[in-house]
Specification:
Blueprint lengths: L7 H11 L4 H8 L9 E11 L2 E8 L11 E8 L2 E8 L9 E5 L3 H9 L5 E4 L15 E6 L3 H14 L5 E7 L8 H9 L4 E7 H4 L9 H6 L7 E5 L2 H13 L6 E4 L14 E5 L4 E5 L5 H7 L17 E11 L5 E2 L5 E3 L3 E9 L2
Parallel strand pairs: 7-8, 7-10, 8-9, 10-11, 12-17
Antiparallel strand pairs: 1-2, 1-6, 2-5, 3-4, 3-6, 12-13, 14-15, 14-16, 14-17
Helix pairs in contact: 1-2
The structure holds flavin-adenine dinucleotide and FE2/S2 (inorganic) cluster.
The site of flavin-adenine dinucleotide has 23 residues, from strand 4, strand 5 and helix 3.
GO molecular function: 2 iron, 2 sulfur cluster binding; metal ion binding; oxidoreductase activity
Keywords: 2Fe-2S, FAD, Flavoprotein, Iron, Iron-sulfur, Metal-binding, Oxidoreductase
InterPro entries: 2Fe-2S_ferredoxin-like_sf, 2Fe-2S_ferredoxin-type, Beta-grasp_dom_sf, FAD-bd_FR_type, FNR_nucleotide-bd, MRET, OxRdtase_FAD/NAD-bd, Riboflavin_synthase-like_b-brl
């Protein structure tokens, strides 16, 4: 990525000036992974998966810990001088060297997919998340769509290669065969007869999505679905339908979900208002649908952020004055000094933030 820090030129320069010592001895002094303040990783390989997605392998520095299958990490990249953070599931098997698989849908993912190269530096936070495999082996159903396959791919890679008693039914939806992530590897793993059955649901060929508003598609595809611990990751609508269906079948305790976007209450946006970023000396008019985080970034304020969906608390900013609305509940609140989760809050009138 042309706008990211690269190690390679530094390594080349080091080898010229450090002889007879090993360049590594000197590089340790300026190693981009060695910052005490910010965990970093070096991109070691980039594999193209589909025209719009890529797997980025990286070597993390000290402070990283091995991930459990299904966990995610915050990844920061410097783009045009501004550090942008997004969350990505780790797609390699639990405990293996990490990688993320990114699908390009917006500015940051686009840069990661199309402009990342070996030697680039990624900023990192350690793996987290509780969308992880059950402690004891049991029959599993994985329901995924699009890039929602990523945390489940880590689980499949972990289970199928390492546990002889794996019993996994995976139903993955994609628009076309060409855009179905990991299709060849999944079909190969399913062919090993190691307890994985893969059902690819290609919406472009079937003319409709895998329907979770009734039990018909599930009954036809995985008849014993009610008995299985079920992991769902995909678009909001799919997750909402699954929650309703499992609740109606009175088996919701067997459902584990992972969302890539926040749950917002329809119509919870409210009025909007003027948002003043005091320390940055910037202000902007934000409508009731724009989060304070987006409003700040659009105005050029360096906003702290992480998951951007209300789970990691990385985006907290103190409120100086005004009221904000929580997009998840519609609740309007605001006390001076209160820490505001800017990724899920909008302005409810004029707002003054200490950032
Ligand atoms: C826990 C977690 C794990 C994630 N894992 C992955 C992953 O493994 N691979 C991956 O590509 N992305 C993943 N995401 C989404 C990722 O963090 C970014 O939101 C995504 O790459 C878009 O960022 P952007 O800056 O390109 O676009 P933005 O402009 O920030 O996002 C555009 C909009 O798309 C929404 N969105 C986010 N993800 C999706 C999606 N999959 N489908 C449709 N809309 C979406 C966002 O909420 C936002 O409203 C994950 C998100 C979370 C919270
Ligand atoms: S960025 Fe994670 S809670 Fe707001």
């Amino acid at each position: 990525m042309d706008c990211m820090t690269r190690l390679n030129p530094l390594a080349r320069l080091a080898s010229v000036f450090t002889t007879p010592h090993a360049p590594e001895d000197f590089l340790r002094l300026v190693n981009p992974l060695s910052s005490a303040r910010q965990l970093r990783g070096i991109v070691t390989r980039v594999d193209r998966e589909t025209p719009d997605s890529a797997t980025i392998h990286f070597r993390p520095g000290r402070g990283w810990h091995a991930h459990e299958a299904g966990q995610w990490a915050r990844i920061g990249v410097d783009i045009d001088g501004v550090r942008q953070w997004r969350s990505y599931s780790l797609t390699t098997a639990g405990g293996e060297d990490p990688a993320i698989t990114v699908t390009a849908i917006g500015a940051i993912s686009e840069a990661l997919v199309h402009r990342t190269e070996p030697g680039d530096v990624l900023f990192l936070s350690p793996p987290q998340g509780d969308f992880v495999l059950p402690e004891h082996p049991r029959p599993l159903l994985m329901l995924t769509a699009g890039s929602g396959l990523t945390p489940v791919m880590s689980m499949v890679r972990t289970l199928v290669r390492r546990r002889s008693d794996a019993d996994v039914e995976l139903v993955h939806s994609a628009r076309t065969r060409e855009t179905a992530l990991f299709r060849d590897e999944l079909e190969e793993l399913a062919g090993l007869d190691h307890g994985l059955t893969v059902h690819h649901w290609i919406t472009g060929e079937r003319g409709r999505r895998f329907d979770l508003t009734s039990t018909d598609d599930l009954d036809a595809t995985v008849p014993d679905w009610r008995e299985r611990a079920t992991y769902v990751c995909g678009p909001t609508e799919m997750i909402d339908d699954a929650e309703a269906l499992w609740r109606a079948a009175e088996v919701e305790s067997r459902l584990v979900i992972e969302r890539f976007a926040p749950i917002t209450l329809p119509g919870s946006g409210g009025d909007g208002g003027r948002v003043v970023f005091e320390k940055s000396d910037k202000e902007v008019d934000a409508d009731g649908a724009t989060t304070l985080l987006d409003a700040g970034e659009d105005a050029g304020v360096i906003m702290p952020s992480g998951c951007r969906m209300g789970i990691c608390q990385s985006c907290l900013v103190p409120l100086q004055a005004g009221r904000v609305r929580d997009l998840r509940t519609g609740e309007v609140h605001g006390d001076e000094g209160q820490l505001i989760q800017t990724c899920v809050s909008t302005a409810a009138g004029d707002v003054y933030l200490d950032v």
